[in-house]
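Blinded run. Sample ID left blank on purpose so nobody reads anything into the name before looking at the predicted structure. Input follows.
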Amino acid sequence: MGLTVGFIELLDADTLPALFGKQPGTLTPWDCSHATLYRGTSAARLEDFSVSDGSGGLRPHMSGSGAPGLPALNPHTAELHQAA
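Blinded prediction complete.
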């Protein structure tokens, strides 16, 4: 069952370098350890996915339960399909 979220503030791409030290298009979930992570219920069971980390290219076979050199992610699951 998903988490009911009333309000999530989306960040403007210009604020990413100051908050996370990375440029838009290079940010991965593992760069956001001090932020609250959410995933849509449609992705809740997704265990094998790819992320782009910019100049490093596409990193395939990533997992929310961890990857070589990366800790497990523990995002909240919420109905995000109506997010605007």
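Unblinding after everyone has recorded impressions. The first strand starts at residue 38 and ends at 40.
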